[in-house]
């Protein structure tokens, strides 16, 4: 893992011999070197660990905020299984301007996690700070266990009577592959506006007053109701950076009524630019057909949608 001139950390992996290295998608370029993801960065701390019998990577990178005319770095601890990414939280001291860091992990009965980092002083001088992060291993274990439990439930497609996870109760109707699956929005709403990612990554924001959680998902009612999953607008750090190059978005939906309008947008993806450029848009029409738009090209599909039943829809970018 190395900070690069493009403004972010590139991550590489080796098959084991250490002679050949390849880009570690989808987590490469997730972490930005600076607040605006420009220029060189400092060395990050990272180490491999086996948590809940799963191989993961723990890492620390500074997150910058403006203080006066300058930017100050506070280290965050992250955990990733090389697909999902979770921000465990702040780990450097508030009064410090954190720079380069290292992580030391010891497994076994005396499990321990130690952080060493540079505190930038006036001029070009630095102080070295050591902090125990052993207490952070417990929340990390809970996150990793949540990933494993969700994977197992989706892969095995447990019945509605035996499934142990409320988030997918009455949803699972067939085995769902989890390789490459980085996020899942199900039926967990908090504060009425936050749609929780069951893999504890990026949450979605729901809009409209008539949005409710049901046993099978989230129901949107009314013209203004909907949700936005801001996978590309997280600022310095972008857990779903891979979506800039390649992604697939899959949803199970139920349409409860024929629209009065000619068509209603159901699913889509837009660029995080000033124009909100649409990558694709899937709509359903009042004559019972799907309408798929890529850029300015519109296709009306022969496949018809129907009222009341569950239907699987998908869209993507790149080779997704």
Automatic annotation (TrEMBL):
UniProt xrefs under SUPFAM superfamilies: Concanavalin A-like lectins/glucanases, Sialidases
Molecular-function GO terms, alphabetical: exo-alpha-sialidase activity
Gene3D superfamilies: 2.120.10.10, 2.60.120.200
Coiled coil: none
Leader peptide range in chain numbering: none
InterPro entries in UniProt: ConA-like_dom_sf, Sialidase, Sialidase_sf, Sialidase_trypan, TS_C
A Pfam family the protein falls into: TS_C
Domain of life: Eukaryota
Domain (Sialidase): residue spans on this chain: 1-118
Residues of the Trans-sialidase C-terminal domain: 177-314
Membrane-spanning ranges: none
Protein known as: Trans-sialidase
Organism, as annotated: Trypanosoma rangeli
